[in-house]
Amino acid sequence: xxxxxxxxxxxxxxxxxxxxxxxxxxxxxxxxxxxxxxxxxxxxxxxxxxxxxxxxxxxxxxxxxxxxxxxxxxxxxxxxxxxxxxxxxxxxxxxxxxxxxxxxxxxxxxxxxxxxxxxxxxxxxxxxxxxxxxxxxxxxxxxxxxxxxxxxxxxxxxxxxxxxxxxxxxxxxxxxxxxxxxxxxxxxxxxxxxxxxxxxxxxxxxxxxxxxxxxxxxxxxxxxxxxxxxxxxxxxxxxxxxxxxxxxxxxxxxxxxxxxxxxxxxxxxxxxxxxxxxxxxxxxxxxxxxxxxxxxxxxxxxxxxxxxxxxxxxxxxxxxxxxxxxxxxxxxxxxxxxx
Length: 339
Description:
CATH topology: T-fold
Helix content: 25-40%
CATH architecture: Roll
CATH superfamily: ApbE-like domains
Radius of gyration: 20 Å
Number of helices: 8
Largest sheet: 9 strands, antiparallel
CATH class: Alpha Beta
Strand content: 25-35%
Distance between the termini: 8 Å
Shape: globular
Order of helices and strands: EHEEHHEHHHEEHEEEEEEEEHEE
């Protein structure tokens, strides 16, 4: 582990916050040109960079894959599997689904590894605090009856999946898989590029990234955004290389929040306490072999705070962490397991 103070005045163009790559000037006969593709995905964007000859029909393949994913796991698609589950009193059949079960298995693994700091059944609490389709609070006074009711619907033990059916123990149980959705989508696109013969690529969905192969012999490089609320200018806190086959996901409270009567409410909810969690950890970037895992653990890290986040990462040999921690005096510090 190392700690490093951050210069808050380091500014970089917005594009560099999404992707920093080596220049495209050919150096030798092994050089491969880079091609880029972009579009909308999961309430955000996707950006694909790959090396080699142009792949015809790639845009259509990407959009088709993401559409199939949305039909199972997007809470914004009315007839998606997850939307039907959330509306149901007892559960839904998973027959014919491809992506739902892998996401549930991932969720179960991360729930156990984080002692419930990550839990996709947190959806009722997310809505209670004004996120995930819920209404922003009008007052800082908490309705304890409504809060207790939402808390009673949360717990991974309240769902069960067997024989192709996803059961819920209570009618009010709902799932929110957004904490791993973009990461899973990144993994799908990375697998698609590899299957289509383009193993050297970088996939980016809303800032969650996975690098395949190299950038003409060099690691793909990404930048970590400085966690500033209401920033008028984007800034980088640091850059990291993505070694071959590694993925990175970042979670933070500096973008999705609102304020009522002097109280700030952020989208990080602790499923164990039922409360909005705001602590000294301002941004959590987790590196893992796949982006869905990195995404889910990054969310858990924001819940447990700086010391807990280091414990989660150091306790898992597949993970690495890059954390931005705020001090009482407004200073910012990097705490990382990376050399």
